[in-house]
């Protein structure tokens, strides 16, 4: 039938695009981790910014690895997703790494804001002085919240899996039309609330840094002076605004996938899947170009690869 052909074509197209995105994302984040590891070996130390980037790079690398495995299994051995508890375990791992990426990215925005923004409030000064000690705790909190998201993801997928078997036979990913059970609403609400907390934190840090930039600019205009911190403000603001834009789209996709779960239009589900795997890679790439050392290393690596290709 036309619907069956449409769903099958969407499956094939989605898996091909996800595979390409996964390879690209793994390469980008492997580059970030390798550059940071080399710098760590040379300096014998890790600053807070590098710790967050390392954690984010590792998290996203494994996130794309799981996406790649999922894509290959869907093509080569799709029947395994009808066997308990394989789909539940995949959902748990994907929920965990997705949440980990979200929270660690929020920590990175908060770190930029606290390090660069200029406020004279006692609490803000305390955070600026203690930020290096706070970062490991923030990363630990991110892992714990991500574990909670993983458990919720397992529970949601398990209930959907059992309901699909009780009502009809297992169907194609794009052809499922399982109504949401009322018992799922608390789980979906809790998951959405946890993700919303991270989104609110990013929006708060962006506004805080913007306000700090505005105050600093006014002060410089009043004194007719120049300050290098203005450049740092603007650079960090550009990075956070870009991330906020990417984060907003990713957050919307996550919430939509939670709210509708499997009861979605084929085209909408396809677009959400593509965006969910594209945006983390795009943000990782922007982190490389916002870091002078990583950017130089990448350009030098690409130049060496180009020379070797030309020699052949």
TrEMBL record:
Family: Belongs to the G-protein coupled receptor T2R family.
Signal peptide as annotated in the record: none
InterPro entries on file: TAS2R
Protein name, UniProt field: Taste receptor type 2
PANTHER family: TASTE RECEPTOR TYPE 2, TASTE RECEPTOR TYPE 2 MEMBER 40
Regions that span the bilayer: 12-41, 61-84, 90-114, 134-154, 184-211, 240-262, 268-290
One Gene Ontology term, aspect cellular component: membrane
Membrane listed as a keyword: yes
Keywords: G-protein coupled receptor, Membrane, Receptor, Sensory transduction, Taste, Transducer, Transmembrane, Transmembrane helix
Location of this chain's protein in the cell: Membrane
Origin superkingdom: Eukaryota
Membrane topology term: Multi-pass membrane protein
């Amino acid at each position: 039938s036309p619907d069956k052909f449409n769903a099958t074509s969407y499956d094939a197209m989605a898996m091909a695009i996800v595979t390409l995105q996964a390879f690209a994302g793994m390469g980008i984040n492997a580059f970030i981790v390798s550059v940071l590891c080399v710098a760590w070996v040379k300096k014998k130390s890790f600053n807070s910014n590098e710790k967050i980037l390392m954690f984010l790079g590792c998290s996203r690398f494994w996130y794309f690895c799981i996406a790649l495995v999922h894509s290959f299994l869907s093509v080569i051995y799709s029947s395994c997703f009808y066997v308990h508890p394989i789909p539940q375990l995949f959902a748990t791992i994907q929920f965990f790494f997705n949440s980990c990426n979200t929270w660690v990215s929020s920590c990175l925005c908060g770190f930029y804001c606290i390090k660069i923004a200029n406020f004279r409030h006692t609490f803000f000064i305390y955070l600026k002085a203690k930020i290096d000690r706070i970062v490991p705790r923030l990363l630990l909190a991110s892992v714990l919240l991500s574990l909670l998201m993983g458990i919720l993801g397992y529970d949601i997928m398990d209930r959907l899996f059992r309901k699909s078997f009780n009502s009809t036979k297992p169907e194609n990913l794009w052809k499922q039309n399982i109504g949401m059970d009322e018992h799922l609403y608390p789980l979906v609400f809790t998951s959405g609330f946890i993700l919303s907390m991270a989104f609110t934190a990013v929006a708060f840090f962006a506004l805080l840094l913007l306000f700090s930039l505005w105050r600093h600019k006014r002060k410089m205009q009043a004194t007719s002076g120049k300050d290098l911190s203005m450049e740092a403000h603007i650079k960090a603001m550009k990075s956070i605004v870009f991330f906020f834009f990417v984060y907003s789209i990713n957050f919307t996709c996550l919430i939509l996938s939670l709210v509708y779960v499997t009861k979605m239009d084929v085209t909408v589900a396809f677009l959400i899947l593509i965006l969910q795997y594209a945006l983390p890679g795009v943000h990782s790439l922007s982190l490389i170009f916002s870091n002078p050392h990583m950017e130089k290393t990448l350009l030098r690596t690409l130049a060496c690869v180009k020379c070797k290709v030309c020699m052949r």
